[in-house]
Design brief:
alpha/beta; six-stranded mixed sheet; 12 helices; Lambda_DNA-bd_dom_sf; Helix-turn-helix domain-containing protein
């Protein structure tokens, strides 16, 4: 269980250590060829410190790594762009975004798929501007108008991952309470439900509703997100969001438990087709 980007730092370090070993170099030799002190190579390989993309490129050159896909993957781990043209636009909002939120956005922008259970609010990637503002105002009662505007802008900018090439594949299970909770008033909620209906018809979005009639279920412990990466499953991570922080679970047993939980929730939820009808019915009655 880790906070922030520690998971990816450690994975990057392990990959670089393996490449150094394959190249037949000691850490001292690698450091000499890179023009560094040996301690810098050691810190990178143990994941105890961050590493700049330029440093990763230099090490890959030292180790003779020419495979473009492998280089791209390791640069992604270092925080570089992911090769699909999705850059770190959120850096412009560093003054208003806490580190845990920035890291979540980074994972979201680099992932190929996202599975999420939502028990309280509409997923951020599917929120309307009005709904996003109402949720943000409720979470940050003392926030200035300027900060609220910026946070809503971020929420909406995040949604570009669904329009990217290729788009993020989003699978979401929504507890019925998400649809019934009146956020921002009847008008705001009605428009938000209409937006959900539109989103449910997109090929890259799979929405399922878990009705109250399903009774108690494994998701009662709270919402979670599973990010998956097309280049390697070793990067997959579960994110648990709390009021003041986020936890990242990356052990294979944790990923297995949460993946099985999501599959079980999907089984008990309405089918995507029936869920679309359910959401449309809720929108008509909103």
């Amino acid at each position: 269980m880790q906070h922030g980007p520690a998971v990816r730092r450690r994975k990057l370090g392990a990959e670089l250590r393996a490449l150094r070993t394959s190249a037949g170099l000691t850490s001292g030799e690698a450091a000499r060829l890179a023009g560094w002190h040996q301690s810098k190579v050691s810190r990178i390989e143990t994941g105890t410190s961050g590493v700049k993309p330029a440093d990763v490129r230099l090490l890959l050159d030292v180790y003779g790594v020419a495979d473009p896909q492998l280089r791209e993957l390791l640069l992604m781990l270092s925080g570089s762009g992911d090769g699909d043209g999705r850059h770190h636009w959120w850096h412009a909002y560093r003054g208003v975004l806490p580190p845990t939120y920035r890291d979540f956005i980074s994972l979201e922008s680099q992932a190929s798929a996202m599975r999420t259970l939502e028990t309280t609010v509409i997923p951020g990637l599917l929120q309307t501007p009005e709904y996003a503002r109402a949720v943000t105002e409720a979470a940050l009662e003392d926030a200035s108008e300027e900060r609220l505007d910026a946070l809503v802008e971020v929420r909406l900018a995040r949604q570009d991952v669904l329009r990217a090439t290729p788009p993020l594949e989003l699978s979401a299970v929504l507890d019925e309470a998400v649809l019934r909770r009146e956020v921002g008033g009847p008008g705001v909620m009605a428009r938000q439900l209409d937006r959900l209906v539109e989103a449910a018809r997109l090929p890259q979005v799979r929405l399922q509703v878990l009705p109250f009639s399903a009774g108690a279920h494994i998701g009662v412990t709270g919402p979670f997100v599973i990010f998956s990466f097309s280049r390697t499953s070793d990067l997959d991570v579960v994110v648990l969001d709390h009021l003041t922080s986020s936890l990242h679970l990356e052990r294979k047993e944790d990923l297995r438990v949460y993946s099985e939980a999501f599959d079980a929730l999907s089984t008990h939820a309405l089918s995507p087709e029936d869920s679309l009808d359910f959401i449309a019915g809720a929108a008509a009655g909103a």
